[in-house]
Design brief:
Layout: H1 3-7, H2 14-20, H3 26-33, E1 40-44, H4 50-57, E2 61-66, H5 69-78, E3 83-86, E4 99-105, H6 113-123, E5 124-137, H7 142-151, H8 162-170, E6 187-192, E7 195-197, H9 199-206, H10 210-213, H11 217-233, E8 242-244, E9 246-254
Parallel strand pairs: 1-2, 1-4, 2-3, 4-5
Antiparallel strand pairs: 5-9, 6-9, 7-8
Helix pairs in contact: 7-11
Length: 256
Amino acid sequence: MTEELLRSSFGAAATAYAEHRPDYAQAAVRWALERAPGLRVLDLGAGTGKLSATLIAVGAHVVAVEPDPAMLTELRRALPAVRALSGSAEAIPLPDASVDAVLAGNALHWFDMAVAGPEIARVLTPGGVLAGLWNVLDDRIDWVAGLERVSGSAAIGPRDTLSGWRAATADLLAPRTGTVAGFGSAEQAEFPHGQRRTADSLVATLSTRAGMLVMPEHERDATLGRIRSFLATSPETACGEFTLPMLTGVLRAKRG
């Protein structure tokens, strides 16, 4: 299964993505921006605007760039006041030195950083910040670890849990230097971000994962059936609403 197939899968589920995917912890966004020279922020690979909404809530001035037309339509519907442009990390439709920070929510790992790194640096002001944010499940909690086991990697992939995210972000860093695509040394932090869910809404959320979207229908139905059975029999999730233990992980670096 190619990265391109996975990366391009989200548009078919744009409405469900907008409804069920979580937002981002405000504390994580503030930390991502605290070293930026200002609050002009590009939300890159913005999807349906989940990160843009949190950026607005903390006072940032946001422009959003998203390559998928269906996702972009949902973003414009949800956040009509946000300037939302068609484009990609490898071809950003903004002038040089036009933003103070570039943030990517659950998207940085999809970028071709050999091309996107210089392009991101181009649109950043001197001293600007690049930050990737990921919402991850806290697999230190026993029932969450159990959910991961029954779900399989298509529904809960290597970057979707805390332990997996910590390992996967290391792949984005240059060996020995610990830098991101020519930026300065990277810093990482994690922020609690529990989400209220029901069994049905959690199943709907997991259905929007890239691996699930490209899975053959019979395999997807079998996977979702295992997840439903687990949630129905787990004491933490069997009775109405529950808090899904999550964190927002952040990887940030400054432009020189």
